[in-house]
Input
Amino acid sequence: MKYIEIFLAFFVSNMLGYGGGPSTIPLIEYEVVTRYGWMTMSEFAEVLALGNALPSPIATKMAGYIGFQQGGILGSVVALLATMVPAIILMLALTGVLYKFKDSPKVKFLTCLIRPTIAVLLGSLTIRFVTNSYGQAGLFHTVLLMLASFVFIEKMKIHPAFIITGAIFYGAFIIA
Amino acid sequence: MKEEHKKERTKGQTLIDLFIGFLRVGFFGFGGGPSSIPLMYKEAVDKYGWTTSEEFGDILAIGNTLPGPIGVKVGGYIGYKQGGILGVITAVGAEVIPVAIIMIIVLTSLASIRDQAWVQGITYAVVPVVAVMLGSLTWQFTSKAEDALGWPITIGLIVFSAIMLEVVGIHPAILIASLILFALLKPQKKGSE
Output
């Protein structure tokens, strides 16, 4: 049943993606590309690129679109609910209890402990994106775009939305 | 009766405030959930006075100990406190739905013209950019882990996770759930509390 799959995919990735949006990205990718095969790597990259260029939380934008692509408006609603409702219920139900533990070393330890795993997931996703790009756009465009993105985003701290817009023009006029 | 009428109006007004406040958060929170936190603070503390600065800090700290998108957890909490269930729906809906709709419209129209060479060029060109952003996130997570755990444990966990995920091929959810269980069940050192 498609809607149950949509629900499970987004429920699982968001419940385990400690550390917010960015740590859920590789988990969503695992469900959507590897497990259910709803989209290819490069389609996922497009969703991620546009998602990064638009405002508001990344996890909900991805859920909204992927849910829509798989199951229309109802699919979109299911994916968004799976992303948000459990998190909000936990937040409302546990605030009183967690108030006491918010500075507890155990909670901090938990968040730290899964960071290396998320790093591995993100790292392997990065490698697949680079390989994918090499296969599609070729070595020259891949290296040039990666170098330019690195300098603009990491060194000059320009907002990613501008870089993605730049890449869109580069792709439309130069690669094509 | 006059009182009741007044109360009703205030509640409606609160919902409108929540809607406008969180719509702004959604539309200007470029860079995802974490970067929308300062905007939420501005609306919730400075503009509407829904919570105090101190309480906002606590909500944020508590939100960070729970899974799920941070912007949604904080927005949901503030919405509930101001307007109950309806408040949650208004606040989170305003924050998330308009941009999700924009996302759907843009990507769907892109899909219908996929065969055009220039659209192909665009889809090729964004992949390396996203790769750089993911690479940078990888590094951020690694260095944050190193700050807290030190290099030996961080590298150990990276190697362990890489073997489990890439060689053994277990589902990432199972690995993360086991690590969470391990952290929760691990006996705490005496005197650390």
